[in-house]
Amino acid sequence: MRKYDEKAIERLQKETSIIDNNGIKVVVKPIPGEDREGYLDPLELDLMEKFWATNVGGEDKAAEPTSKEMMISAIRDSMGFPNYNLNTVEIHTKFEELTFDENKVGLWRYYPRKTEKNKKRPAFVFIHGGGWIGGSVYTVENFCKLLSELADAVVFNIDYSLAPEKPFPNGLNDNYSAVKYVYDNAEAYGIDANKICIGGDSAGGNYTAAVCLKARDLGTPKLAMQVLIYPAVTMADAKVEGYQWSEDFFEMCEEQKHIIKNCIGLGRPIKFEDDMFLQNYISNKEDIYNPYVSPMLAKSHANLPKAILAGAEFDGLRLHTEFYAKQLSDAGVDFTVFRYKGMTHAFIDKLGHVAQAEDLCIEIANAMKNL
């Protein structure tokens, strides 16, 4: 089920433009239903008005939770968005539970039944977002299933440990271990060990970048491609020379400025003491300078897998995304970076509601086919 005309996908695929940002080429995706600059996608705006009115100046917010546990629970309950299954072929779903360093890690996998006998399929390992404290494999399940169909691939979906119950480095180690497990058992899974990709959104993009750094540093597993979807690549106020964050980098129309400003706060440099998500994820303030927490701060980005990076125009993490693309480019890493005009953070959660989520799935699948 789609809430948009399929011609929207055609426009997103065919009417891209290229801009130069800090010396790198950014592929800009148009808004299917809006040509004016600085405007939200009309479908995105409609979703905000219907489902997130309290975030854009609607009804009074409910009373704040009275304990940390209640606050974490409320945040987790608010994450994700009900999306749609767009598959047109039968997708098999399997589940297994793995144990790494006493952590139980769920590993879902999806693949088209019709090509099950092909033992050299490409693979994609997905790491969901959620600010390191929440999110769910179920929110991204439809995205993973569609990717498995479009790329004719086995797609894995990791149910890793969450903070604050399991703070850093638990989640990172869970994800690294799961990716290595897939690599080490490629033959059993019927996949090509030379065509294993890894990707994730938001905090999952952070984990993806960190896992790629760790895999490079340790020499295993060998990864064919990384996909960073609006990733957080630096924490608190940690930064490197040349990186800047400013509202001035966002073009906002006057009539929607009050809405858009509420959408671009992610990634804004703040003190560690003021960052609730980060305080739940890491217990040592100095870890913001650890490249496995802030991949932007890695001493070198050389010899990392080729990359696809995708950012939303009205997402503060877009500045993370495009600066990290610059770092990869400077290190000689092959990359493609997309900017989706009119979109906000977490747009892949809205598969079936907005065409951009499906379009990004198509872009990833096409890249996998060309590995």
Layout of SSEs?
Elements: H1 7-14, E1 17-21, E2 24-29, H2 42-51, H3 68-78, E3 91-100, E4 103-112, E5 121-127, H4 141-151, E6 154-159, H5 170-184, H6 186-189, E7 191-201, H7 203-218, E8 225-229, H8 257-260, H9 276-281, E9 306-314, H10 317-330, E10 335-344, H11 355-369
Parallel strand pairs: 2-10, 5-6, 5-7, 7-8, 8-9, 9-10
Antiparallel strand pairs: 1-2, 3-4, 4-6
What does the model show?
This protein is α/β, with parallel strands linked by helices. The protein has one domain: Rossmann fold (3-Layer(aba) Sandwich). The protein is built from eleven helices and ten strands. The chain has helices at 7-14, 42-51, 68-78, 141-151, 170-184, 186-189, 203-218, 257-260, 276-281, 317-330, 355-369; strands spanning 17-21, 24-29, 91-100, 103-112, 121-127, 154-159, 191-201, 225-229, 306-314, 335-344. The protein has a ten-stranded mixed sheet, with helices on both faces. A hairpin with a 2-residue loop joins strand 3 (91-100) and strand 4. Helix 1 crosses helix 11 (355-369), helix 4 (141-151) crosses helix 11 (355-369) and helix 5 crosses helix 7. The model is unreliable at 53-62 (pLDDT under 50). Belongs to the 'GDXG' lipolytic enzyme family. Residues 124-348 form the Alpha/beta hydrolase fold-3 domain. Pfam families: Abhydrolase_3 (PF07859). Keywords: Hydrolase. It comes from Clostridium folliculivorans.
